[in-house]
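Private note to self, pasted from the team thread so I don't lose it. Backbone tokens:
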């Protein structure tokens, strides 16, 4: 009887109605909430629908989101996390900090099947090396050529301890080189100009001309094609394949506004949210948009091969792989 009463109480609490003036706090990454990112438009659209206040809390990048939530533990400052990815979900689930999303997955439009009941996708793209055509006439045409290229043609990369692209490169090297990843990192280090905490800092250095290459996404050149009418920057298509990133959101188990979090997750799969993804977050939408993608997206690289490591393997080995990276990069 006690178990029944507790279950009924929890269900009733989770179904509480949203009241005008309630606040939803969403922890995400800095580029999402920037003036040029999708955050401001999404905030206006959601607030108009819910009659509530949407508050963004931004940290540097996706891995930093999980790091912060682990530190906060059972007293999170946010109701919902937006910006984890498929490579982090096993570790995030094991933390016990997240609740089931309760949303239908039928409307998802991803290149892979998605059945997760806790982490809900909102966009995706493949990781890629983006280069400057005006500064690099002969870029590396494979991951091996990038690794073996010596010091010519520098690249800016992100830190896997704080950044999902940085973790993506860690997985990329491990997926291709396996037990020889340490050797690959030692070689690649000669080309690394610097390591940044997150994507925003890395891409800013790249576009300022500090290095002719940056670790980014196959979709990044869309920004330059659409906003700048320029094909100066392009993604390289490596025959070894590219890792796929699927960005996700999830409700905190200790959310103070669970009903609002549920409402936001449902909104996230609607055109009101998804319309902002292609030309504000410069990724591919995970669900239906009100209009087709801009034609410039047809010019982007579409990798023939997707590299994949099981999230459980990433969770089990992330620390060891990161230590391997640190050791090689410090030599």
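Design output:
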């Amino acid at each position: 009887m006690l178990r029944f009463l507790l279950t009924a109480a929890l269900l009733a609490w989770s179904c509480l109605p949203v009241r005008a003036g309630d606040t939803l706090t969403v922890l995400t990454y800095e580029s999402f909430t920037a003036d040029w990112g999708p955050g401001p438009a999404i905030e206006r659209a959601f607030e108009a629908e819910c009659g509530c206040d949407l508050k963004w809390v931004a940290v540097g990048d996706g891995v930093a989101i999980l790091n912060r939530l682990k530190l906060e533990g059972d007293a999170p400052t946010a109701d919902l996390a937006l910006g984890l990815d498929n490579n982090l979900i096993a570790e995030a689930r094991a933390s016990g900090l997240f609740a089931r999303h309760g949303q239908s997955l039928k409307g998802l439009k991803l290149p892979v099947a998605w059945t997760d009941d806790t982490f809900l996708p909102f966009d995706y793209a493949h990781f890629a090396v983006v280069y400057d055509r005006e500064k690099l006439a002969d870029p590396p045409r494979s991951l091996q050529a990038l690794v073996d290229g010596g010091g010519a043609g520098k690249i800016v990369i992100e830190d896997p301890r704080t950044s999902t692209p940085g973790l993506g490169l860690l997985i990329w090297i491990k997926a291709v080189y396996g037990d020889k990843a340490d050797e690959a990192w030692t070689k690649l280090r000669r080309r690394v100009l610097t390591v940044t905490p997150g994507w925003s800092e890395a891409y800013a250095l790249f576009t300022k001309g500090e290095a002719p290459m940056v670790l980014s996404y196959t979709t990044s050149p869309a920004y330059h094609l659409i906003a700048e009418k320029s094909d100066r920057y392009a993604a390289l298509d490596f025959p070894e394949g590219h890792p796929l990133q699927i960005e996700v959101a999830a409700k905190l188990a200790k959310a103070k506004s669970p009903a609002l979090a549920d409402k936001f997750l449902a909104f996230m799969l609607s055109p009101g949210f998804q319309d902002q993804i292609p030309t504000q977050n410069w990724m591919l939408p995970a669900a239906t948009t009100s209009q087709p993608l801009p034609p410039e997206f047809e010019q982007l690289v579409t990798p023939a091969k997707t590299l994949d490591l099981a999230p459980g393997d990433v969770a089990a080995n992330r620390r060891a792989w990161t230590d391997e990276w640190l050791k090689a990069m410090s030599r």
